[in-house]
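ok so I'm stuck.
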Amino acid sequence: MMEVASPFWKIWTFPFMARGAQVAAVQKKWSGLLAEAFTDKDNFLVDLGEGGLGENERRLVLAAALFIDLQYFEKKAR
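replied:
not stuck anymore, here's the structure
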């Protein structure tokens, strides 16, 4: 259906590819030095593209954004 992988040079960007084109993306946004160092708060941007995704695909991207947060950015979930 879709493939997701983070490029080596953009470690906080997760593009979703389908049929060789990017259809969506999840990006972790920088919260600032103090927030990143002393809190567990994260800001994410979920870009669903130009409307080429169906309802189920949009739900899949949103669920993947939650999984990305838990897998890569939450210390308590490991």
